[in-house]
Design brief:
Rossmann fold; 3 domains; six-stranded parallel β-sheet; four-stranded parallel β-sheet; 12 strands; transcription cis-regulatory region binding; transcription; DNA-binding; LacI/GalR-like_sensor
C-alpha cells in the first residue's frame, strides 16, 4: 500500500514552498489566485488531505466541531456555516453538520458524537439546548449559540444585536412618517424574536407613539405567519400603515397577503423585514430590511468556541454585532401624507 501524500509532495508538484501550501489551505485569501489554483490542482492529483478526523485519531483528541441545525435549507444557514468552516479550518478543526429537522430523536443521535469523544465543541442553531437523554445533555462540551440565542441558558450567543436591529427597523418606518405600525412575529419562547420586539417598543416609546397605534401579533417566523397576520388585521378592521416583520420570511408573507388583496406596496402599505435573505432582492418591490452579517457571525462564533476549548476557565460571554439597515423599495411615506 502506498504511503499517503504529504504537504511536501503538494509543494513539489505545485512548485511552491510548504509555507505557501499551508497558507493556500488555511488562509486562501492571502494567496494569489493563480498560485491557489496550482496548489488545489496539486492537492487533487496527489490526494493529499488535511482531514481533521484523521488528524484527531493521530493526536488522541477530537478536532471536530458539531453543528446542530434544525433546518439546513434556511437561507441564513449556509452563509453562517461558511464563516464557521473557514475559521475552524484555519485552526486545524473540521465541522460535522447535524441536521435535526426539529426532531428531538435526531438531536439525541448527534449528541452521541459528543459522548463518544468525536466532537470537541458544539455550535447550536436551534435556539434551545439539545433534548434527549439527560445524562448526555448535562455533559455538553464547550458550546456556542448562533442565529438564535438559547432561551434560559448560560450558553454564550454570537449573533446580530436583535434589539438594536429591531429599533433601527422601527425608526426607519417612523422617519418615513408612519405612526400606526404593526409588529408581526412576537413570541413567548424565541428569545431573538423577543429582542426584536423590544427594539420595536423602544423606538415607539422614544417617538411617544400611543399603545393603541402599536398592533402586535404573534408569529413563528414563516411566510404563512406573515400572510395570516395580514388576514387577522383585516378581520379586526384595525389596519396599520406599515408592517415591521420579525424576519424576511414573515415580510414576504405580508407582501403576498397584501398583493392578494390588490394593494400596492409601498404606496398603500410599507413593509420592512429582518435578515436580508437572498429572496429579499427578487420580490417586487425589493424588500427594505435589516441585514445580518452572517459570515462574520460564523467566523466570530467559531473563534469564540475555539478560545473556550483552549482556555476552558475563561468565562463565556455574549458577542453581538450591530446590523445594517438596507434600504430598498418597500417603504415610503404613508398614503395620507403623500396626498396632502
Amino acid at each position: 500500500m502506498s504511503n499517503p501524500a504529504t504537504i511536501e509532495d503538494v509543494a513539489r508538484l505545485a512548485d511552491v514552498s510548504i509555507a505557501t501550501v499551508s497558507r493556500a489551505i488555511h488562509t486562501p485569501e492571502k494567496v494569489a489566485k493563480t498560485t491557489r489554483q496550482r496548489v488545489n490542482q496539486a492537492i487533487a492529483i496527489t490526494g493529499y488531505t488535511t482531514n481533521a478526523m484523521a488528524r484527531s485519531l493521530r493526536m488522541g483528541r477530537s478536532n471536530m466541531i458539531l453543528v446542530l441545525a434544525p433546518d439546513i435549507a434556511d437561507p441564513n444557514f449556509s452563509s453562517i456555516l461558511i464563516g464557521l468552516e473557514n475559521e475552524a479550518r484555519a485552526s486545524g478543526y473540521g465541522v460535522l453538520i447535524g441536521h435535526t429537522q426539529n426532531d428531538a430523536e435526531r438531536g439525541l443521535e448527534y449528541l452521541k458524537f459528543v459522548s463518544s469523544g468525536q466532537a470537541a465543541g458544539l455550535v447550536l442553531f436551534t435556539g434551545h439546548q439539545p433534548f434527549g437523554h439527560q445524562a448526555l445533555a448535562e455533559r455538553l462540551p464547550p458550546s456556542v449559540a448562533v442565529f438564535e440565542p438559547v432561551f434560559d441558558s448560560k450558553i454564550p450567543y454570537v449573533g446580530v444585536d436583535d434589539k438594536a436591529g429591531g429599533r433601527k427597523a422601527a425608526e426607519h418606518l417612523l422617519s418615513a412618517g408612519h405612526r400606526r405600525i404593526a409588529f408581526i412575529g412576537d413570541s413567548k419562547t424565541r428569545l431573538g424574536q423577543q429582542r426584536r420586539r423590544q427594539g420595536f417598543d423602544d423606538a415607539m416609546n422614544a417617538a411617544r407613539i400611543a399603545p393603541e397605534n402599536r398592533l402586535v401579533l404573534d408569529g413563528d417566523g414563516t411566510i404563512e405567519s406573515g400572510r395570516l397576520g395580514v388576514e387577522q388585521l383585516f378581520m379586526r378592521d384595525t389596519l396599520p400603515t406599515a408592517f415591521m416583520c420579525v424576519n424576511d420570511a414573515t415580510a414576504l408573507g405580508v407582501m403576498n397577503g397584501l398583493a392578494a388583496r390588490g394593494y400596492d406596496i409601498p404606496r398603500e402599505f410599507s413593509v420592512i423585514g429582518f435578515d436580508d435573505v437572498p429572496q429579499a432582492t427578487y420580490v417586487k418591490p425589493a424588500l427594505t430590511t435589516i441585514r445580518q452579517p452572517r459570515s462574520a457571525i460564523g467566523k466570530q462564533a467559531m473563534a469564540s468556541l475555539l478560545t473556550m476549548l483552549e482556555t476552558p476557565e475563561q468565562e463565556p460571554t455574549e458577542h453581538l454585532i450591530i446590523p445594517d439597515l438596507i434600504v430598498r423599495g418597500s417603504v415610503s411615506e404613508p398614503l395620507s401624507a403623500s396626498l396632502r
